[in-house]
Specification:
Length: 251
């Protein structure tokens, strides 16, 4: 993909997979940027993805902690319903979500309208719950005896011990909204608000036929879209290793 984005003339043969200095150019990136404004698309994707990650982590920590460390009636039912939600394809919810978000709430052409359907991620809740279940119960019992509230226990004791879970949830959540096309395409008509994935799709449908090298321009846009995800995974790859939770208990 990277080599194809740098080709002045597309080469679909097997030799096109190897860089040819005589066929290397950066014009494809200039062309795609002039057509859809790559920076604006990246900024919109960042706002959309950042909002989803923020709500996912906040609600995931709260719900995961409650399901793992707090005892209340119906806890098992709530957890079962959360697992059931994972079995429902998002495409089945598109029509009722569209009616609710666009018609009832009036959030069309807004970042909030894009973010709300993804604000709570059942997969992230499951990840946090499993990590919180591994924490020694004596830590929480001692804090409760000292008079600490549940929110204080969560903030000062639980969260520092589940940082690998937070990184895992962020990385797992990032890919979904960053590459999401269908929902932002439905709720946004203003090009200035569309994420990069939607802008690239519009370019392929409407503008690519007029480009001098549409193959290279599309690959250039795909490289720009993929670069932040690749960089994020490379940077945080070591954080997937869980901390030794048992070392937090002394005696």
């Amino acid at each position: 993909m990277l080599i194809g984005s740098l080709q002045a003339a597309p080469d679909t043969s097997i030799f096109g997979a190897f860089p040819n200095p005589a066929n290397i150019t950066g014009a494809n990136y200039v062309q795609i940027n002039e057509s859809i404004n790559l920076f604006r698309g990246l900024l919109n994707s960042g706002i959309f993805t950042g909002g989803v990650i923020f709500f996912t982590v906040v609600f995931g920590l709260l719900v995961g902690y409650a399901l793992a460390q707090m005892k209340f009636r119906g806890r098992g039912v709530v957890f079962g319903m959360m697992l059931l939600v994972q079995m429902i394809p998002f495409q089945l919810l598109l029509i009722p979500l569209y009616v609710m978000i666009v018609r009832d709430y009036g959030l069309a052409d807004s970042f909030l309208g894009m973010i709300l359907p993804f604000a709570i991620n059942s997969t992230a809740v499951f990840v946090f719950r499993q990590y919180f279940l591994q924490l020694p119960s004596t830590l929480f019992e001692a804090a409760r005896i000292d008079g600490a509230s549940e929110l204080r226990i969560l903030w000062q004791i639980a969260i520092p011990l589940v940082r690998p879970a937070i990184v895992t949830a962020v990385l797992l959540t990032f890919i979904g909204p960053w590459n999401e096309f269908l929902w932002p395409f439905l709720v946004t008509k203003e090009q200035s608000l569309q994420p990069l994935a939607v802008s690239l799709a519009n370019f392929i449908s409407n503008i690519a036929g007029q480009a001098g090298n549409p193959f290279g321009a599309i690959l250039a846009g795909a490289c720009v879209l993929a670069a932040p995800a690749v960089a994020l995974f490379i940077f945080f790859q070591r954080q997937f290793i869980s901390t030794n939770i048992g070392s937090s208990v002394k005696g």
